[in-house]
Structures are given as C-alpha cells and as structure tokens.
C-alpha cells in the first residue's frame, strides 16, 4: 500500500521488479535459490519448490501434447530439487480447468506427469482441482537433503571450476523445429527427433547427485567431511548464461567461460552459424542441466564420471562480471548479461 | 486415453468424477484427507496441502478486498493442516497475474496473507510469479505432526461423540450480506459486522490442537499413550454437513446429529427462519471449524476447555447414513446428503 506504487501495473515493473517488492513479505534467508530450504532437524532438511504453468504462456497446443506438458512441468520441478542437492519425495498438483476441456486431455496430462515421476520414484501426494477460464497447472515438489550437502547459488568461490552436466541449446532448437518445421529440412531425421525430444522430454539431472557426493566422500582425507562440502550451483532452466550470472551475482564473484568448451548438440555443426549455436546454448533455456561450481579436482572427477557431454566450461573469478572468451579467434571477450534472458512479464 | 472418456468434457463428470479418474495416478494410501501425509521418520510426519483460487470463481472484487482474499487463502490452507493435527511450517505461493493488474493489488494480497501467517508464525518460503490472463493464487502449506497424532477422516468409531469447535453459518451469512446488503436492514450493525468478518477473516483452529493433545495426555492412565490416540476429523470448509458425511463415508459409519445442539450465530435468532438458519449452518461452508469424532469423555473435556461456541452435536452410529434429529418437534429425522454441498464444476 505504498503510495508510489498505487498506479503502477505489474507489466510496468516486470517480474524482477515485482519479486523485489514481494520479497519483503518473505524471510530473507530462504529466498534466492531454485527451491526453499526448511531445516527441520540437524540431520535432515526439507526442500520445497513450486512452479505455475499457464496455457498459451508456458505451453502451447501447437508444440506440446498434454503428455509432454505434464512431463515438462514435473521435470522442471524435479530439476529445481536436483539443483539444491535434494532427493524428491513427492509433488502436489493444483489444476485450474475450463469446464469444456476434455477429460481425455486431463488424463493425458497426468499420464505425462506420472511417466516422469515414475522414473524418479516420486508420487503425486495431493492436489486441488478447480474451475478456471484458463488451464493452469501449479506443481509443488518436496525433497529432502542433508543440510551439509545443500547446493546454493551463493557458495561459489574464486578459483572454482564451472562444470555443466550436458549439452545446451538442444531444447531451444527443438522448440524452433516444432514452431517452424521448414528450418529443419537439411537436418537428418534422427538429429531432428533428438532435438525435439530434448525439448519435449527434458531429464532432470538427479542422477548427478550420488556421483557428486561419492566423489566428495572418496576424495576426503578428513574423517568428518560434513562441514567441508559447499557446492555452488543451480539448474540451467532459464539458460546457461542466466545460471552463471545468477550464481555470480549471489556469490559476489565473476566468471570467465571458454566458448569452445561449451558442449553443443552435434547436429548444430552444419546447421547453425557459430553465433546462432552459441546463442542457443547460452540463452535458449530449458535444458535443465546442472551448473556447478566446484574445486577443480572435484569438477574434473565429476565430468569424467558423468561422461557424455559433461564439461568444465570456465572458472570463477574475483571480477564481478561474466566474460565469454573465444580462444584462438579474433572475437573479443563478450560480457554476458541477464537482459538477453526470458522475462515473464 | 481410455476410449470411453475421449469425448467427455470435465463439466460432464464434475469434480468428483474427475477426481475418481485422476486418483489412479496417485498412491491410494495418501489420498482422501484434508492434506497428504508423508512420513519421513518414526517421530515426525510431514503434512502437505494445496489450494488453487481463481479470480471470479473463488473470490470476487465485489465481496473481497485483496487483503481478505490473501487472508482467506492462507486461512483455508492452515485450516487443512489443523484438520490433520499438524503445526504449520511454511507456505509457497504460486501467482498467475495479468500484466495490467496493479502492483498495489498484489502488495495488498501479500499483506493479507502475511497478516494471517504472522498470527501462526508461518513464513512464505517460496513461490512463483507468472503471467496469466486470469489472476490465480496457488498456495501449498506444509506442516509437521507426530505420526500418532494425525487426525484422519477414516478413524471415526461407533459411539464417538461428534464435537465442533465453533458456530456454523456465520461465513455464509456474511457473504449474503456482502452480496445483498438490503437483507441486513433489521440486523444490528455489530451483528452485521461480526458476520461479515466471519466471512472475510476466518480463523483456522490451530489453537484447538494443543488443547486436544493435552486432554489425551492428562486422561491417560497408560504410561505410553502414543498408540491409543486415533482422532477422526476434518475441517468444515465445505460445510458442516459435508464434513460429517465425508468422515462417515471414509470411516464406513453413520451419524445422528441433534439440530438444537448445533451452535448458531446469535444474530440468526430474529433474522432468519429456523430452516434458513440450519441450512446456513449445515451447508453454508467456509466456517473453517474442526469437526472431531472422539470418545465422549474426551469430547466433553475438549468442548469445556475451548468454551465459546464449541459443542457436541451428535454421535457416530453403525448405520451408514447421517440423520438430523429435531428434538421435541414434529419434524421427522432428515437424511443429509452431499448433493446439497458445493461442486466446483
């Protein structure tokens, strides 16, 4: 009820502006990560994350079947748990539905949610179904983590290696192919299908967590390692550049990324210009990989054990900006910024 | 994707029909109460509940200020926790907003949520804000309970007394007064204000829980009482009749209610006909009191200690129907049914 905001509309201040205003209603210490942490006992923390998806804003009947909409919604929430170092325990589903939507559509949505959930042994534990003029899907996911293993955006340290768990840009390329099939005429069918699957069925990287904890445990010379783990990270749901920028902002550090170390889908090589390819990778979003800042030896071991397209793509620096370096080229370093990312309003 | 449902629309089968279909995607043991229980340790259970509220369906600019919409949304969720015997730990807020909604409206919504939350020391721990053509508020609340103290709909036993924690019908009367102010012209201003407040600022009955557990502990002659507590109950958010019917259905029992023992707001006496008054109390909804089935001695002690308008209104019976008995009148017993309650589609 501050006077200066009485005539403002939400679209005037955007998502970040509104968040800044509303955060004063929330405890400061639990804001700012992919999910909220509620520590209940010294041995166990509960981690909670929530997402709202609206028809024609977050999914579209053109590019998304109800099964895929369900899968993607669940995957996004489980990815937020993975990004906190948490193992999922269950989700609740809040559904707003127009009366004239087909029952079959709703069943197929639940089918897609369940397919993703079953892969990670996670049940739907509750929900609410209400009438709404627009189809709306609100998912809240709960997980548990050991308090000393929680991954936070604010824990990056100068000298950390920046490791990513897979290729970036594939989801965005898949979306473009769905929206404009003609752009894919020079692509092999298998490549096209792989990119579209990356968009429709993203995989939350919960599989990375046991590998990570195992490396920490095996590398430790110290009997009680618990206080020594401080992994920084988040997922790349809003894009790889966004993830690195958010971590750097929260940790008050900077980063230098090596463009040629960022793994791209092989199909990009003869299909996109190098500029398009790196733009999809940095700003495409929805790849749901983990971006982790780790001591270099831990990062090397992690990348080796994940295999596939995991890679070390850069280093945390003390200068509070994020530079993209192009090795062996004439291209000068570029400073990345958040304005190229996705804004909700 | 069953063939028989492919042409059906959600409005054809209603909320209960859709729930019946979707429940096959959820584990059976955690469905059917006000909230879901996730047992994590033998000593502690996590309880989770979620509600979705849609503009013009669940709140209206005519009857509800943004502060009241926020308060009511939080109160409904905290009431679901109370109905499970759980103490709140935090909520997440998912918000869908049109771009042209005023920032002030959103701030006032959060102000109302916070006012209710602060009364119960409960923080907003996370959320999501997205663009949507219709204002939508999804709240998920988390609480904790001792596993042996969880209140379930399915635990009512023949001979239990049915205790309620306060008057019913006030919220519905308040709503009618807001929609049709002229019907209140014979009411005192203070009575009118009290009924409207009952609608705008319902109080989740978390205060009842410590009283209840204290009675159980003090009455026990057995050193380890833990296994002896099996309270049945739910809240009366969808109406008192609905609560009794749901408990009886889940417990496979029946009930007889004494009409004259159901506490009504004093203002009803010279304002409504007896039929209107009992209808508001039974079917009005949104009073957010607790309806508990307890051994008669525990129920008596509880009602005495809560005071105010708590009352024992009936008894659990073996015949699986719910009868309303009118003592000392010519009116025959009435069989209550759910069809008089509120359906979302």
Automatic annotation (TrEMBL), chains A, B:
User: In which pathway does this enzyme or protein participate?
Assistant: Cofactor biosynthesis; thiamine diphosphate biosynthesis; thiamine diphosphate from thiamine phosphate: step 1/1
Q: Give the InterPro entries listed for this entry.
A: PurM-like_C_dom (IPR010918), PurM-like_C_sf (IPR036676), PurM-like_N (IPR016188), PurM-like_N_sf (IPR036921), ThiL-like (IPR006283)
Q: Where along this sequence does the record place binding of Mg(2+) 1?
A: 50-51, 128
EC annotation from Swiss-Prot or TrEMBL? 2.7.4.16
Where, by residue number, does ATP bind?
110, 127-128, 153, 237
* Binding site residues for Mg(2+) 5: 238
| Gene Ontology annotations of biological process type | thiamine biosynthetic process; thiamine diphosphate biosynthetic process
**Limits of the PurM-like N-terminal domain:** 32-144
Q: Which UniProt keywords apply?
A: ATP-binding, Kinase, Magnesium, Metal-binding, Nucleotide-binding, Thiamine biosynthesis, Transferase
Q: Which family does it belong to?
A: Belongs to the thiamine-monophosphate kinase family.
Q: What is the recorded function of this protein according to its Swiss-Prot or TrEMBL entry?
A: Catalyzes the ATP-dependent phosphorylation of thiamine-monophosphate (TMP) to form thiamine-pyrophosphate (TPP), the active form of vitamin B1.
* Other noteworthy facts: Reaction mechanism of ThiL seems to utilize a direct, inline transfer of the gamma-phosphate of ATP to TMP rather than a phosphorylated enzyme intermediate.
User: HAMAP family given for it?
Assistant: TMP_kinase
Q: What is this protein called?
A: Thiamine-monophosphate kinase
Q: Which organism is it from?
A: Tolypothrix tenuis PCC 7101
- Gene name, per UniProt, is thiL
